[in-house]
Amino acid sequence: MLSDVVRGLIGVIRGDETEMYWAALAIKFADIGRLTLKQKVQKVPAKVKRLSMLLLFCFLLLYLVVLSVEIINSLGAVMGG
Q: Looking at residue 81, what is its pLDDT?
């Protein structure tokens, strides 16, 4: 990538018309950036899936505990009262 930039700057110093070169280079760099982001994103889902499942189980456990406590308290009120 650096060599492409240097090649373009040399063209500017020489006085060449480099507008199309810089436009093409910007598109090329944007494509490279998108590819590197896609590669990083592909590595993340396995970690995210594991952690999101763990979080889901924690919420379900919390929900079940609260529900159980409320059921036991309501049964105690009905039986004792």
A: 57
